[in-house]
Amino acid sequence: MSPAFPSGQEVPAGGPLADGQFGDASNPFGVYVHVPFCRVRCGYCDFNTYTATELGGGASQRDYATVAALEVQLAGQAMRAAGYPGRQVSTVFFGGGTPTLLPASDLVAMLDAIRQQWGIAPGAEVTTEANPDSVDLRYLQELAAGGFTRVSFGMQSAVPHVLATLERTHAPERIGPCVSWARQAGLDVSLDLIYGTPGESLADWRASVRAAIEAGPDHISAYALTVEPGTKLAAQVRRGAVGMPSADDQADKYELADDMLTAAGYCWYEISNWARTDDAADHRCLHNMAYWRGHDWWGVGPGAHSYLGGLSRGDDQDRRGLRWWNVKHPRAYAARVTAGLSPAAGLEWLDPAARELESMMLGIRLRAGMPVQDLPPSARAEIPALIAEGLIDGHAAIAGFLVLTRRGRLLADGVVTRLTRD
Predict the structure, then answer these.
(1) 105, 161, 346, 407: which could join 8 in a potential S-S bond, CB 3.0 to 4.6 Å?
(2) Taking Cα atoms as reference points, which of 40, 71, 100 lies closest to residue 327?
(3) Which ranges carry the Radical SAM core domain (predicted)?
């Protein structure tokens, strides 16, 4: 949801699907719902979010669920008109922003709109992000009763001065009760952490990881803080008001988290994500797995991106991927949707070579790795050197899969560069 959206191609008058012809639609299908509202804009965040004082005139929180449900209806109509074979939704993810600033009944209403258009597959994963100070037991029980199965809390840190630097509004002691309430409601729980905040020591980070483990979630994500251009944090760094940690500091914190989480029974399945492994249940985030595996999804809301594969364009018989994105501002989004128009602002067609490249860039992030046979010859030629440098697991490569070592995870971008250069 970065403000730096691609320009793309012009969207046809009939919407992004007007020029596409559907081929094989066996790919699983998910839905992402972007809720762009936040109580406070965090200084490090560059997502497409707005506080209440920045909006109005057709873009209010009060009306948002109705507008988003209208887009879902338009999406269903467009897919049927394009001859899109019907598929039930296997994952739904409400992100933002802070979806739980809306009443629980609004989130359930948007989920109901998705259910009415496409159907929800048995055992589907339905997640919402939440700030720890935006929910209570009753709220989470209402979500669970409405069909939600999972909640992801933005914990970020357990250290007050780190939370203050990040401009997070919750108190560290709020995390334990939130996880307990979610458990009582019957929801799976994920906690998100951020490492590398200016002023965060290694001891601070150890305390945060320990607190997350002690809360007992099913899933933990740990992301390195990135200073995005145009954010308040970027301006502070530019002025010298705060300093950023070194790459070595961030690597130390990643390795510490991996050690602590592994010892506590969590297993990494994607570079920044660990899931509990103490029972037969799959606690990975299946919606994010769908992105990394190249599944299809429809993005609802201002600035939301969508992707459908297995399409041909006009007389072109090569199956391509179609990606598009909605207008960014909630007011423009609401105006288009309420007028019965597609909110899409731009699109791009991905040819087979581009799809292959994206598949490699995303697939290599997974613990399962990717089949060596799927790599182009130039990439396969790099494997012996990558093994010798300790970046690729040699035993996995012999078995036919490209799997990153922990050192490789730390240098994943460089590995991808090596594999994709001509």
Answers:
(1) 346
(2) 71
(3) 23-270
